[in-house]
TrEMBL record:
Keyword Magnesium found: no
Molecular-function GO terms, alphabetical: L-rhamnose isomerase activity; manganese ion binding
Biological processes, Gene Ontology terms: L-lyxose metabolic process; rhamnose catabolic process
UniProt name for this protein: L-rhamnose isomerase/sugar isomerase
Organism, as annotated: Agromyces terreus
Alphabetical list of InterPro entries matching this protein: L-rhamnose_isomerase, Rhamnose_iso-rel, Rhamnose_isomerase, Xyl_isomerase-like_sf
Entry keyword annotation includes Cytoplasm: yes
Keywords: Cytoplasm, Isomerase, Manganese, Metal-binding, Rhamnose metabolism
Pfam families in the record: RhaA
Catalytic activity, EC: 5.3.1.-, 5.3.1.14
Amino acid sequence: MSLFTTEQLAQLEQQAIELPSWAFGNSGTRFKVFATPGTPRDPFEKIADAAKVHEYTALAPTVALHIPWDKVDSYDELRSHAEGLGVALGTINSNTFQDDDYKFGALTHEDAAVRRKAIDHHLECIDIMHATGSRDLKIWLAEGSNYPGQADLRGRQDRLHESLSEIYARLGDEQRLVLEYKFFEPAFYHTDVPDWGTSYAQVAALGDKAMVCLDTGHHAPGTNIEFIVMQLLRLGKLGSFDFNSRFYADDDLIVGAADPFQLFRIVFEVIRGGGLNNPDVAFMLDQCHNVEDKIPGQIRSVLNVQEMTARALLVDGEALRAAQRSGDVLEANRVFMDAFYTDVRPALAEWRESRGLPADPMAAFAASGHLAKIAEERVGGVQAGWGA
Ligand code: AOS
Ligand code: ZN
Ligand code: ZN
């Protein structure tokens, strides 16, 4: 007897997680970036690596790009390259955090010329989205200030609205803007989009095609993230997740590694709020693999999301509601924890095999010798990094 019902298996089969192209490049801390042989040298190779993750798991059919890191001469060519490998191009991430001009802001800058440059960058991203067939433009802003008094907080919020309005007006009918929030870093006193409330206020003022992006690493320690997930779903404004895990700050570690229970609680609220396999809610990863191999790092990540989704699907909703209604605190908690403590791995392995996938994608990938093969093939050129 399978652990899962047919309906639960159907949910698991539909699950799709978007991979970030930058996860396949070399990354590190401000102290050192460790290079790995075989690291992609261009966006084409990053997509080939992402396609491997999908090949072994059937969980990652799309790849998010970052502009300018993934700029190419022909997006048609990049698109057919991806399609030829069985994946599609996904979210386009903008970048207004690397130019000297943006030292004091981009979309919020006091100087109209700098704002113009930042807005134009986003309009270029929308043009690229038409070529790549992407739906979402994801905006994360590195804007803020370090010292009290340094910036006019209110003026910046007003300019942000004006800039976003111009970008929003350029979106096609099927396109969306997702605005990510982050409570600190690179600025340390204030950030212009620090929390879900600010992101919500800004996107609500734009219209239906603007949504909030929730990066799990962008909250103060102790924040109840699943509550935010519930609220945004309730408001119809949860556009996407950037999944990763953290111990201290924005660590960008493998999702589910630091706190699998938190991931379980988040996915439970996603299911409760109708967000699972709902095209309006994109599941993306936003991670860096500093010391571990990148392709298996991504395989581990999507499997972690799948495992916690499988566990969350096992919560006995009726029993939970009955306990909640009758005020049976300990029974409600038992029902919830029973699902969390269920080891779904053997059942998932069996189910994968029944679909022609490897029972253990990590082991199958390791046995394929693919990492050694790309290390040998990808010589010459410059390895991609977080930022190139
Ligand atoms: C930055 O902290 C954000 O998480 C961004 O989503 C992302 O890491 C960056 O934009 C890479 O594209
Ligand atoms: Zn992010
Ligand atoms: Zn981040």
